[in-house]
Amino acid sequence: MKDEELLEEVEAFQKLLIDYSTGGDVEGKEYKRLRRDLLSNPKVKDELPEFIQNCRSLRQFWSFIKSESGNYEGRRRFIWSEFAPVLNKLEGGLESPADDPITEALASLDAGHVDRIWHKALERKEKDSEGAVTAARTLLESVCKTILDEMEIDYDDKADLPKLYHQTADELNLAPGQYSEELFRKILGNCQSVVGTLGAIRNAHSDAHGDGKASYKPASRHAELAVNLAGSMAMFLVRTWENASESA
């Protein structure tokens, strides 16, 4: 089986489990088929969630997932997290251990386009530096807009990244001026600087603009830095939004 086909099968299995654990109608035969196919494939066997090895039927999986979480959202997040290692491996052989918690955090937004942008950035950071820088900025823009949408806050769809981030930070109480403690003011101020710099790097050195006679191409290490910074900032925003939602 080709890697692309294998990826589709793993994604289909993940979707089946999410559908079933959130009240969907799923056939037990399909569960057993996908489980058998994936456990027999040496490329993914060791990366699959441990519960797949133990749950030989949908009935056994149901007993497991009920004990893991009592609500639909918790079950989705758990399954996304458990499948992240094998999906990351198939989507590009990702090596950075820091990528997994970022992937998990972005998946919790339940916005497929955000997850796709993040993986696009990861895939491009070694072989397509300019494309990776573009994806890094697009990731942060999308995360800000998605969080504002979730909070039912209006925003200018054409606003640049710094403006979107400032609005999102204000709504999440992350603006430096909202804190009296100097240390936190500095940290949050530095976060604003990082976001502004990512926007500036993208404007100057990405594939979003044409080149003049003298142009500069970012090296792979620069693209990796941009992607990692964008991913970390995106995860920080999502975790802050989650915490605010749980406290509301």
Describe this structure in words.
With 248 residues, the protein is mainly α. 70% of the residues lie in helices and 0% in strands. The chain has 11 helices and no strands. Helix 8 crosses helix 10 and helix 8 packs parallel to helix 11. The chain is globular. 32% of the residues are buried.
Compact summary:
Helix content is 70%, strand content 0%.
Oligomer, anyone? single chain
Please outline the major beta sheet.
Answer: none
State the end-to-end distance.
47 Å
Q: Structural class of the helices, strands and pairings?
A: mainly alpha
Q: Count helical runs.
A: 11
Strand content: under 5%
Which regions contain 5 or more consecutive residues with pLDDT less than 50? 205-214
Write down the secondary-structure element order: HHHHHHHHHHH
Q: Tell me the helix content.
A: 55-70%
| Radius of gyration of CA atoms, rounded to a whole number | 20 Å
Q: Tell me, what's the shape?
A: globular
Mean pLDDT over the full residue set: 84
In total, how many beta strands?
A: 0
Primary descriptors:
248 residues; mainly alpha; 70% helix; 0% strand
Q: How are the secondary structure elements laid out?
A:
Elements: H1 3-21, H2 28-39, H3 50-54, H4 58-68, H5 72-90, H6 99-107, H7 112-124, H8 129-150, H9 161-171, H10 182-205, H11 220-247
Helix pairs in contact: 1-2, 1-5, 5-6, 6-11, 7-8, 7-11, 8-9, 8-10, 8-11, 9-10, 10-11
